[in-house]
Design brief:
three-stranded mixed β-sheet, globular, D-Maltodextrin-Binding Protein, domain 2, four-stranded mixed β-sheet, alpha/beta, 13 strands, single chain, 2 domains
């Protein structure tokens, strides 16, 4: 049994390490996931050191939770960290906007200094847990590959925090039986009241295994100036793929080699899969079936890759399939491409750079259906070997509380996932762009799948095939057929 358990955990590591985050870290943290944590060494055992605690109903408990970079305030007991964090924020003269004493008084609807978001996030959770006699302790295991390595070691040693966090590796952990399913009543509450992007990618065999408080999904963005220079209405989103392609081609023609229409990043890496994968899903295609077997050469995928090939000439040479996604997003920031598909952070970053941008849901193909891929989604889960499961689930409940979701709404950087907050008239009026992002979190929202065997090799086969189909004159169906055959030789 021990050998079997070890093989399962090691397999989880092998299956996920190739797509640990969006891709290699790009020029801006917001271009990878928006959730990177500062690197910090975990205990050498790979597990979390925890004081003795009780998880009995009504009893005191100390739970250990892994940090999420966008809301982390340090390592240790949160009650002890809040004061030190406040002091350091007030003393940091490099912050823009500068933090003042007034920023630490938060009320619903107040425009927030983004620098104090993590402080308020942790303060609200801490108070809610204190009322249930739960003490919150954090540890930082890093992000991406280092995080997966430490989680894998922790599973193997059966020494895990009470709540772990991660991105594309988390569905694989659920499928391996390493995570505790949410209690049925909690799962139903989430299904009834929360946008699918926050939990749907972590649903397996009818059970929910993870929750993201502020997930990202893809939207369509465009540079209004470049669109206007092409004689198009800069305030009108393309209605469908045909109109999107026509707009892109008009911008390229107007640019005369100085700027291009753009489209979507399609590099042979996770950064590409997370962006153009949304188009596969919209067009009723995808990467894999429910058993983790590849579905590369479906008719829908052939049609979508054909569309991608048409987008390629509307980019500076080599940009669309560049192995470094930062090159692609730099082109948008420098005004070299007009349209792109990306996560919600593109809005705040464009505004900071002075780019007048448009933002809308991604248009559908002629027979497509709404769909999306989570990007920059940090899922919180309870390991099977957690010591304080009941208290851990209480922590996750705070993440979709009205207090936390209102806080997320007031930042204007991500959209809340709680329907009662996101669908309010107040939110729609104050944050129309982020409301569009919220709408994109409904429907067929997926995470990147885990293949049945040797996932990283299978991903590379597909990425290389799509790049070849885009960059050469080869038969697209034949290229994807070959990729399917090679992938099946590995997974079956």
């Amino acid at each position: 049994m021990l050998l079997k358990k070890m093989s399962v955990v090691i397999l989880a590591f092998i299956l996920t390490i190739g797509i640990a985050a969006c891709s290699t870290k790009s020029n801006s943290a917001s271009e990878s996931t928006g959730n990177e944590s500062p690197s910090s060494e975990a205990p050498s055992s790979g597990g979390a050191s925890q004081p003795p605690s009780s998880d009995a109903a009504g009893g005191a408990a100390t739970i250990t939770v892994l940090n999420e970079g966008s809301v982390g305030i340090g390592v240790g007991i949160i009650s002890d960290l809040l004061g030190a964090k406040k002091k350091s924020l007030l003393a940091d003269a490099t912050l823009k906007p500068k933090v003042t004493e007034e920023d630490f008084t938060y009320t619903k609807g107040k425009t927030m200094n983004a620098n104090v978001f993590g402080y308020h996030f942790q303060s609200i959770i801490n108070e809610k847990l204190k009322s249930k006699n739960i003490t919150l302790k954090t540890e930082d295991w890093g992000w991406g590959e280092p995080l997966i390595q430490k989680q894998t070691a922790g599973f193997l040693a059966k020494n895990m925090p009470d709540v772990i966090i991660g991105e594309t590796q988390m569905p694989g952990f659920a499928q391996q039986g390493l995570l505790e399913p949410f209690p049925d009543d909690m799962a139903q509450e989430i299904r009834d009241n929360v946008a699918p992007a926050a939990w749907k990618p972590m649903e397996y065999d009818g059970k929910i295994y993870g929750f993201a408080a502020q997930p990202g999904v893809n939207s369509l963005f465009w540079n209004k100036k470049l669109v206007k220079d092409a004689g198009l209405d800069p305030d009108k989103a393309p209605a469908n793929w045909d109109e999107l392609l026509a707009n892109i081609q008009k911008v390229t023609e107007a640019g005369k080699g100085k700027f291009y229409g753009g489209g979507v990043y399609a590099g042979p890496n996770a950064g590409g899969f997370l962006r153009y994968g949304t188009l596969l899903i919209i067009n009723n295609g995808g990467f894999a079936d429910a058993q983790g077997q590849p579905t590369f050469n479906s008719d829908a995928n052939v049609e979508t890759v054909t569309f991608l090939k048409k987008l390629n000439p509307n980019h500076p040479p080599g940009v669309m399939v560049n192995t470094n996604e930062g090159v692609y997003f730099d082109a948008f920031k420098k005004g070299q491409i007009a349209y792109l598909i990306d996560g919600p952070w593109r809005a705040a970053e464009s505004a900071a750079l002075g780019i007048e941008y448009g933002m809308a849901q991604i248009p559908l193909s002629s027979d497509g259906q709404p769909g999306n891929i989570t990007i920059g989604a940090a899922f919180n889960s309870v390991p099977k070997d957690a010591k304080n499961k009941q208290a851990a689930f209480e922590y996750i409940k705070t993440l979709y509380s009205e207090e936390i979701q209102n806080l997320i709404a007031d930042t204007g950087v991500r959209s809340p996932v709680l329907k009662s907050v996101a669908e309010s008239e107040d939110y729609k009026t104050k944050h129309p762009e982020m409301y569009q992002h919220y709408l994109a979190m409904a429907g067929n929202v997926q995470g990147l799948p885990t293949f049945a065997k040797e996932s990283s090799k299978v991903w590379q086969i597909f990425g290389d095939a799509v790049a070849k189909a885009i960059m050469t004159n080869g038969d697209i169906k034949g290229i994807l057929d070959d990729a399917q055959k090679r992938a099946e030789a590995i997974t079956k």
